[in-house]
Specification:
Layout (H helix, E strand, L loop, with lengths): L2 E12 L2 E12 L3 E5 L6 H9 L6 E6 L2 E2 L5 H8 E4 L11 H6 L14 H7 L1 H5 L10 H13 L5 E4 L8 H16 L3 E5 L3 H4 L5 E6 L2 E7 H6 L2 H7 L2
Parallel strand pairs: 3-8, 3-9, 6-7, 7-8
Antiparallel strand pairs: 1-2, 1-4, 4-5, 9-10
Length: 236
């Protein structure tokens, strides 16, 4: 199985405040992998370390076997990583369609690249709202735009940070449906979210962060079989 992303001993800090203390994780091609943990435990910091937004102070980040620490976020994105950031960051003064095509790119010689048509098939609601400005969208619609926009870069790895944070239950279901569909299409995804019961059926493996380190890692079957992990590390 081809390993797309590999973190080894990654350390990260904000000023004098260290957040990550040697994080190890990997994502293989075609996998959906989750990064779990309580709020403030380092999940988004891990994403920022991967993307060069807060470069690691120690350890290595490899993408397709190539070290990416020290590269700019733009360089890392061009290598084939698409990020759906926490907070969505949809451009408020662009229409839905303009948001989607703003960073569209044909990368990695994909045989079935993401296009506007595919994005609208994944999220039919966006076709209906394609002429609306970003600031006219609901939080759920903005999250759909953020996911579709990242896919339009045709990434080999999609990272979704706080996939359903603050969304209504019906919209959360729409995001789970999207992830299931991406799984069927073989898209590699690293997803950060808190709804363990919904993540288990659509994910291959999981990492739980505690104290800035990986406290547990295993398969969906292993996580489902031990609910004490949910209580101990996630407070579910």
């Amino acid at each position: 199985m081809t390993q797309l992303l590999a973190l080894a001993g990654v350390e990260s800090a904000y000023g004098d405040s260290q957040v990550l203390f040697g994080v190890d994780l990997h994502v293989n091609a075609g996998e959906i992998v989750t990064l779990l943990g309580r709020n403030g435990i380092g999940k988004t910091t891990t994403v920022r370390a991967i993307m060069g937004l807060n470069p690691p102070r120690g350890g290595t980040v490899l993408f397709q076997g190539t070290p990416v620490q020290g590269k700019s976020p733009d360089q890392i994105a061009r290598l084939g990583i698409g990020l759906v950031p926490e907070g969505r960051q949809v451009f408020p003064n662009l229409t839905v369609e303009e948001n989607l095509v703003a960073f569209a790119a044909r990368r990695n010689a994909q045989t079935a690249p993401w296009t506007l048509q595919r994005a609208y098939e994944l999220f039919p609601r966006l076709r209906e709202r394609r002429g609306n400005m970003g600031n006219q969208l609901s939080g759920g619609e903005q999250q759909m735009v953020a996911i579709a926009r990242a896919l339009m870069t045709n990434p080999q790895l999609l990272i979704v940070d706080e996939a359903t944070e603050g969304l209504a239950p019906l919209i959360r279901e729409e995001i789970w449906r999207c992830l299931r569909q991406l799984r069927q299409q073989g898209q590699s995804v690293l997803v950060i979210d808190k709804y363990v019961d919904r993540l288990i059926p659509i994910s291959d493996r999981h990492y739980i962060l505690e104290g800035g380190k990986v406290a547990w890692t295993g398969t969906s079957a292993q996580l489902e079989a031990d609910p004490s992990l949910w209580q101990g590390y996630l407070g579910v």
